[in-house]
Amino acid sequence: MKTPKLRLLPTFFAIALFAIATQWVLTQPLSAQDAAQTEATDSEAAAEDAGPQEKSLIDMYKAGGWAMYPLTMLSIGGFGLIVYNFMAVRPEPILNSAATTQIDEALQNLDIEKAKSICQENPSPVTNIIDSGMNRVDINNYDSEQVKEAIEESSAEELAGPFVLINYLSVVGSLSPMVGLLGTVSGMVKAFNVIEAEGAGSAQALAGNISEALITTATGMIVGIPAMFFFFFFKNRYGKITSRIGRVVGDLQFTLNKAINNRA
Fold it and tell me: Which of 224, 100, 238, 245 minimizes the C-alpha distance to 174?
């Protein structure tokens, strides 16, 4: 009875080895698959932990497409106009109060030539207007209406110049949102072309085109809103300055009329 059991021992060993080998072979693919799944799960978890990828300003600029180039030019032009108007639209450079005080003293003495020379030595909008009026003054045959007409004609020309540069801010403020809207239309057309060609499943391409549309709209607003704000700001400031010019020139004309009447 012991002999058959001993003969069966190699068989048992063979079966055991086969079972161990089979188990090892079967477990290898499963282990590799588990490792891959674990790696993928880890990657997804890391991506979720990292959150959505943030874009830099340069990336957003590039995503805006062609419309960002004219918007860049408009923003540079608008910024330059704002800086220029801050320097130019001020009371002192336009009113030149030091020169007008000297002109007033000269007119009190009926020294028209001295008043003209002061105007020519201190060029500014208000002195140019006064100089035009002085050119029509004839002390021996004085006509206040001719002087008044000369001042009005010169005022229209002199005061229109600074307002042109203020008005360009309105152009920038109006054009920027329109260019942004044009970029939006371009981006949406591209998005619909992607849907037509690849279907709605190409989410990445759709997101890129829609992002272009929204970025151009936002950029147009960012450029346009400050431009319109500063347009009205400088327009109001210039309006106050021009009203003071009218009063200064009127006072000088009154001084001239009074001096001529006193001489008579």
Answer: 224
For residue 183, give Cα distances in angstroms to 106, 117, 212, 224: 61, 56, 7, 15
Q: How many whole angstroms separate alpha carbon 253 and alpha carbon 233?
A: 31
In angstroms, the CA 227 to CA 34 distance is 61
The arithmetic mean of pLDDT across residues 44-73, rounded, is 73
Query: Which residue bears the tokens 């949406």?
Result: 188
pLDDT digit string, tens, across residues 80-108:
999 999 998 988 888 888 999 999 999 88
Q: 175: closest CA among 227, 213, 210?
A: 227
Look up residue 111 and give its two tokens.
Answer: 């020294």
Which secondary structure element, helix H or strand E, spans residue 29, and what is its range? helix 2-50
How far is the C-alpha of 35 from the C-alpha of 26, rounded, in Å?
A: 15
The mean-pLDDT minimum among 25-29, 92-96, 170-174, 179-183 falls in 25-29
> Residue 261 and residue 264: Cα distance in Å, rounded?
5
Q: What is the DSSP letter of 109?
A: T
- Closest to 74 (Cα-Cα) out of 225, 186, 258, 254: 225
Burial class (CB in 10 A: 0-12, 13-18, 19+), 264: exposed
